């Protein structure tokens, strides 16, 4: 039920999570059984219970080690030249690109943040999950606050909250719809151009000194795609999760 305390424990915990992810790939989130993880990893159920209380704990941890909040800081560090406008659209565009490459991440995201699900996890995992969800909200809000401070955006506190919520809710709805593949194109067109128009519309309802354009987002998407293609975005370990979990807002990872 606890997170690993040293590198040896982290290695074992990661092995268990790797096997759980393979089971989800083969059987789906609903069908795989908790005890199967230990069998696949070649360890006892006691070892499994050392780190996870239930299937819900496992799924929460799988989501945590796949979150974009573990990758965005690395991307920003590699690109210190990004301006306020680029950083303002980064979290949304980055998540879109990760979802395109990893359908399992989107499945884990949708399941893990559902209150009917996460409330069944252990209290320790819930605390980490809550911290990580709020960290991602901070990744959206911090660039907006910085834009206001720099005079690039004129907005009240209420308007900042409205914009942050609009971006997050659009992101959540669009990624869920994209992955479900249920909607006819008459209702939903899952392409970048449509996404850029939606984001521009949301952003430019507010008083930016310079409009947020499709060109800004196209350039950012290309950089994100190149970064993910290189593999630097694959930061999936208990150590990384623990380190990110110590942070409460994106100011600490700029």
TrEMBL record:
Instruction: State the Gene Ontology terms under molecular function.
Output: DNA binding
What InterPro entries does the record point to? Answer: Homeodomain-like_sf, HTH_TetR
Please report the stretch or stretches of sequence annotated as the HTH tetR-type domain.
10-70
Q: Does the keyword DNA-binding apply?
A: yes
The record's listing under PROSITE patterns reads:
HTH_TETR_2 (PS50977)
Q: Which UniProt keywords apply?
A: DNA-binding
Positions of the DNA-binding region? 33-52
Q: What is the protein name given in its UniProt record? A: TetR family transcriptional regulator
Source organism per UniProt: Shewanella insulae
Q: What is the lineage of its organism?
A: Bacteria, Pseudomonadati, Pseudomonadota, Gammaproteobacteria, Alteromonadales
């Amino acid at each position: 039920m606890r997170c690993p305390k040293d590198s040896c424990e982290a290695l074992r915990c990661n092995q268990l999570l790797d096997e759980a992810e393979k089971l989800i790939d083969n059987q789906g989130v609903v069908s795989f059984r908790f005890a199967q993880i230990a069998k696949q990893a070649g360890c006892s159920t006691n070892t499994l219970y050392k780190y996870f209380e239930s299937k819900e704990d496992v799924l929460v941890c799988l989501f945590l080690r796949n979150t974009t909040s573990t990758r965005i800081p690395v991307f920003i560090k590699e690109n210190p030249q990004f301006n306020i406008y680029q950083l303002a659209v980064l979290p949304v565009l980055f998540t879109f690109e990760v979802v395109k490459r990893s359908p399992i991440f989107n499945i884990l995201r949708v399941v893990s943040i559902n209150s009917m699900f996460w409330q069944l996890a252990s209290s320790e995992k819930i605390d980490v999950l809550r911290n990580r969800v709020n960290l991602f909200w901070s990744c959206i809000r911090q660039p907006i606050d910085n834009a206001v401070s720099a005079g690039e955006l004129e907005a009240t506190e209420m308007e900042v909250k409205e914009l942050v919520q609009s971006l997050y809710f659009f992101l959540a709805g669009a990624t869920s719809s994209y992955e479900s593949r249920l909607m006819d194109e008459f209702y939903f067109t899952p392409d970048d151009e449509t996404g850029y128009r939606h984001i521009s519309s949301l952003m430019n309802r507010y008083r930016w000194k310079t409009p947020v354009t499709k060109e800004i987002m196209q350039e950012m998407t290309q950089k994100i795609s190149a970064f993910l293609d290189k593999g630097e975005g694959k930061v999936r370990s208990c150590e990384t999760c623990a380190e990110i979990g110590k942070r409460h807002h994106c100011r600490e990872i700029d």
